């Protein structure tokens, strides 16, 4: 049974979003983390990233800086 904490899962997903990961860290994640939790954290992280971009664009356009 794979046992990984929520913090480990979030850290692994955050590193994957940045695209920086050592091979030994990846091997350690594969052996410890539950793939279902990683997928859920990735989807939630992706949604939060898109939401942040949408809010940033709306703020810039609404402030008149983009005009």
Mean pLDDT: 85
Q: What percent of the residues sit in helical stretches (DSSP H or I)? A: over 70%
Write down the domain tally: 1
Low-confidence stretches: none
Order of helices and strands: HHH
Largest sheet geometry: none
Q: Count the helices. How many? A: 3
The count of strands amounts to: 0
Radius of gyration, in Å, reads 16 Å
- Category from helices, strands and their pairing: mainly alpha
Strand content: under 5%
General form: elongated
Q: Roughly how many Å apart are the termini?
A: 56 Å
Write the layout of secondary structure elements.
Elements lengths: L5 H13 L4 H10 L2 H29 L4
Helix pairs in contact: 1-3
């Amino acid at each position: 049974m794979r046992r990984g904490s929520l913090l480990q899962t979030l850290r692994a997903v955050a590193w994957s979003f940045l695209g920086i990961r050592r091979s030994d860290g990846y091997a350690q994640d594969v052996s410890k983390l539950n793939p279902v939790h990683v997928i859920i954290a990735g989807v939630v992280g992706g949604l939060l990233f898109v939401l942040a971009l949408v809010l940033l664009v709306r703020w810039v356009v609404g402030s008149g800086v983009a005009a």
